[in-house]
User: What shape does this take?
Amino acid sequence: MREDAQLALSAKDLDENSSVPLYQQIYSKIRHAIVSGEVAPQSRLPAEQELVQRLGVSRITVKRAFNELAIAGLVRRYRGRGTVVTYDSSTPTVKGSFENLIDGLKRMGLETEVQLLDTEIVSPSPAIAEALKLGRGASVQRIVRLRRLAEEPFSYLVTYVPEDIAETYTEDDLATASLIALLEKAGHRPCEATQTITAVPAEPAVAAVLGVTTGSPLLRIHRIMQDETGRPIQDITATYRADRFQYEMRLTREKNADWTAE
Assistant: This one.
């Protein structure tokens, strides 16, 4: 762990007459210092009591600000060690878009490293069987992977593929190649996808893998892919660290017309 963070924060940075609560003002100031790189990763923030005296606020106020930072995945709190910055501003952020979906996913596969955590042939749940349009008695391959970006945990992925397609590649292939490339090689090039995007709190097991605090905000994308024949070939739930991945889109509007995505 590095030395204590040199946090430039004083009582004059707070406005007691503002409608924004003091804990949130403190949170915002420290968050900016962390995200901007002013405070280095693995450095230790000032102790709660030090900030209480420096800022002239209650300990409850400082404690809540620190807890919010932990929930946001920016710091981790240790008993006896204090509050340590875990966010690294030098790690790049991946941007995705609704347009050029497949190409974007292929680029992501090239830009990130994948670790195969688990794979097995299982009976699908009713929801998976319906999504993949499978008949009674069919089996699927369940694949659990972790993606890293610049050696930092980036996304946690749980994928289901019909067993007859999964037979065309090996476990070693899954550990070294992108699943999009393997599907294409198997003759099932993804051509269409339906996806749903939601925000979810990090469950303990997922939080541990992604290196964030339980309850931290995550971006979850559920996607069903189809090949050229319209057959569903993949059901995937991808959970991304919100500080490492963002979706963006450009909207345009012609005169007297609705907004459309380009």
